[in-house]
Amino acid sequence: MPPKTINAITLILVSFVTIIYTGCNSASSSNGKKELISFKSFNGISYSEVARRQLNGLSFNEYGYQLEPQWKLQFVSDDSVSIYSPTKKQFINFPLTRGYDSVFNAARSWLKIKKMSKDSIVMEILKARGDSIDISGAKVYMLFYADNYVKNVLHTDTATLRHPSRKDTLFVKSLVVKANKNITKAFAARQPVQLISKSPLVTIKQWHTKPDIMNNFDSSDDYLDPTFDITINKAYQDFNYSFSVYVDNKGQMYYRIPLIDFMGDKDAKQSYISISQSIMNSYLKYYLKVMPGTTLGMPHASVISVHVEGKVAAPSIAKN
């Protein structure tokens, strides 16, 4: 890795250690309350999020969830902010509501400015509880650098700065070792399991979340709970079964649990498990090529959900 890149990433880590414990230097009014924060001095500056981390400095947790830096923004005024939409590939203006103690709301998110300059911003994500805000925060911090600062001072790019840290890599490696020794320690793979049909009689459709403003552009369910619709034509009978599967680091499948509620009917549950497990061990293992999930390039055990439909009739083929 080039020295400039190492220096830039090191600067991110040092910044987090320093600024997480540094409060915002907002001026206080005569009655002891902090004034509303003003963005006037920073209007028009393009900032890109380069890191999002927990208080412990990690961007991954033990379940495989990654806090991924992805925001780009420009403050337009004290009551408006422009945020980049990755789906529309353009900046969209959102109303901005300011509160005391450097708290503000924009794009359905409550945030608190911890430190702000023309070169960088540190924000803490706040938790909404009904009609109130927990100003103690979620202990998740977003670090932004001005695009000009990244290019002309750090001499790198946003994509490079967003790479997971060495601390993240070591943590994920420890999870991988545990999961590959004991499949019940499986965790979500950042690049989830892939299912590839080996027969024209079997079709696979993976569920995908469309990131938009309603989910804060968050499509993490796609890797936290990879879900597939599998249709098997010319099956021995019509059927529908839903269950979850462990997939190990070699791509081998192991039955986990059914995904429906049997309302205490143990016999029905046992029958369902027996049949759906047979479907997995026959149709799925025979007709599917399974690529294991990976995180930071390391294959490991993870869990997927499948909804399997069997159809006796063969699919109709359109004639030219």
Would you mind describing this structure in some detail?
The structure is a single chain. The relative contact order is 0.14. The chain has a 9-stranded antiparallel β-sheet. A 5-stranded mixed β-sheet has the order 13-14-20-15-16. The chain has 320 residues and is α+β, with helices and mostly antiparallel strands. The chain is elongated and about 70 Å long. The protein has 6 helices and 20 strands. β15 and β16 form a beta hairpin. The chain has 2 domains: 161 residues, Beta Barrel (Lipocalin), CATH 2.40.128; 128 residues, no CATH class.
CATH class of the largest domain: Mainly Beta
The percentage helix is 10-25%
Query: Which oligomerization state do the chains in this entry correspond to?
Result: single chain
Number of domains: 2
Question: Which architecture of the largest domain per CATH?
Answer: Beta Barrel
Question: What is the radius of gyration computed over CA atoms, rounded to a whole number of angstroms?
Answer: 24 Å
- The total of helices stands at 6
Spatial arrangement of strands, main beta sheet: 4-3-2-1-11-8-7-6-5
The percent range for strand residues is 25-35%
Principal-axis shape equals elongated
For the largest beta-sheet, the strand count, sense and barrel status come to:
9 strands, antiparallel
The CATH topology of the largest domain: Lipocalin
Mean pLDDT, to the nearest integer, reads: 87
Distance between the termini: 56 Å
Structural class, by secondary structure, is: alpha+beta
Number of strands: 20
The stretches of 5 or more residues where confidence is low (pLDDT under 50) are: 2-30
Order of helices and strands: HEEEEEEEEEEEHHHEEHEEEHEEEE
